[in-house]
Amino acid sequence: MARAVVTPLRVAMIDDHEIVRTGLKHILDGDPDFVVVGEADDGPSGVAMVDAVRPDVVLLDVRLPSMHGDDVCRLLAERAPEVKVLVLSAFGEEELVYRCLLAGARGYVLKDIVHFDLKQSLKAVARGEAVIDPRVATVVLERLRQGDQPPKHPLTPHQFSVLRLMAQGLSNREIAERLFLSENTVKGYVQEVLRRLGARNRLEAVMIANRKGWL
């Protein structure tokens, strides 16, 4: 009887540390159950890469140089909803990873990969299961159970993403490139952010958001 052909799980990585990407590829290379189909070192190029290769699972670092991890999760959920996201984090990232889970990530594992089985985690997420590293599961799941939310703000998710990029000093054109939006759309978001926060300019909007604990 012929042996059934197993289709390998297609994995992509978004992480700004080359040594981490190399280590992850080393774990997956040579295993017929997996194939690495793409990698990127920041959020915008990562979203574009996922758009192009459509992997089954994305391994996503939460700390990227150009975008917050939850903004990347939100963009991936909108542009490629069939792609599962497994977040990678270092210790002390519970708040950001929690926001990633709210934005659509399916799992959370710590970067010291000796302590978790990467392959089983990838397969579980691909099946639609949730994977939470046991060392932080109690904290994260308790927050989810209680419905604890980040500090409330009057902005939509896209407006909030624009605000956070405004806080980094980016122009409307740069924000449009990061979020895959038109410059006119970003201009409209900026104007609405100012209106909703009661700010006269971009700097004042960022100062208000900082004072409220939103950034």
Automatic annotation (TrEMBL):
The chain positions of domain HTH luxR-type read 148-213
What SUPFAM superfamilies is this protein classified in?
A: C-terminal effector domain of the bipartite response regulators (SSF46894), CheY-like (SSF52172)
Q: Does the keyword Transcription regulation apply?
A: yes
Q: Which domain of life is it from?
A: Bacteria
Boundaries of each Response regulatory domain copy?
Answer: 10-126
Q: Which InterPro entries match?
A: CheY-like_superfamily, NreC/VraR/RcsB-like_REC, Sig_transdc_resp-reg_C-effctor, Sig_transdc_resp-reg_receiver, Tscrpt_reg_LuxR_C, WalR-like
Q: Per the record's keyword annotation, is Transcription regulation included, yes or no?
A: yes
| UniProt keyword list | DNA-binding, Phosphoprotein, Transcription, Transcription regulation
Cite the GO molecular-function annotations of the record: DNA binding
Residues annotated with 4-aspartylphosphate modification? D61
Tell me the Gene Ontology biological-process terms attached to this UniProt entry: phosphorelay signal transduction system; regulation of DNA-templated transcription
Give the PROSITE patterns listed for this entry: HTH_LUXR_2, RESPONSE_REGULATORY
- Its recorded name reads Response regulator transcription factor
